[in-house]
Amino acid sequence: MTELSVSVLSADLANLADECSRAVAAGADMLHFDVMDGHFVPNITYGAPVLKCLKKAVPDIFYDVHLMISDPERYVQDFAAAGADLLTFHLEAVPGREEQTIRAIRDSGCRVGASIRPGTPVQALVPYLDQLDLVLLMSVEPGFGGQAFLPETVDRLAVLKAECERRGLSPRIQVDGGINQTTAPLCTAAGASVLVMGSAFFGAADPAALAKSIREL
Ligand code: DX5
Ligand code: ZN
Known about the structure:
Largest sheet: 8 strands, parallel, barrel
Bound molecules: D-xylitol-5-phosphate, zinc ion
Number of helices: 8
CATH topology: TIM Barrel
Number of strands: 8
CATH superfamily: Aldolase class I
CATH class: Alpha Beta
Structural class: alpha/beta
Distance between the termini: 6 Å
Radius of gyration: 16 Å
Number of domains: 1
Helix content: 25-40%
């Protein structure tokens, strides 16, 4: 079974709680909360205070928080206290502080995820695989929803999956960006186990049917 993490970024943000309840009712396994700081990526979204309110309004769902920010370690406590279940940081944001960042997230009680941009070699993740609950391969340049899936992601997923199998490790393998009914099966066939979906989900005529078809992959 494949897990579906619905990206809140494409929701009607003026009705965030309703939109998230709708995603949960439609069958989302997780809500994907994209935090952008206008520095690590050229866009600004929302932070821990918004997550805290959302968690209160929609409590019974796994909060998958994707930190696209320059100094993730500094905000780990805030997001953990706000209700994050998983915190995913970007390796490119913490050169030389990878292990410390992993430890800080672990110590906060959250699951630990690490992500790389499309241009970063998959090998960059390899030294940390045994310390991670989730690895996230970006299939678009992080920063905006609604972009087209980068096809080279399929080979990158296969390389990552093969390395996990070779080492007997089974972190969740997540892919994020441009996922829809066409690209989703390519990703799961290559080894992805969690698919992030934003614009395709909120633009769907029948989100429950879409969620069902994704989770059955
Ligand atoms: C992009 C974000 C994604 C985005 C995905 O930087 O990390 O989570 O919301 O949106 P879609 O599914 O529209 O590509
Ligand atoms: Zn994301």
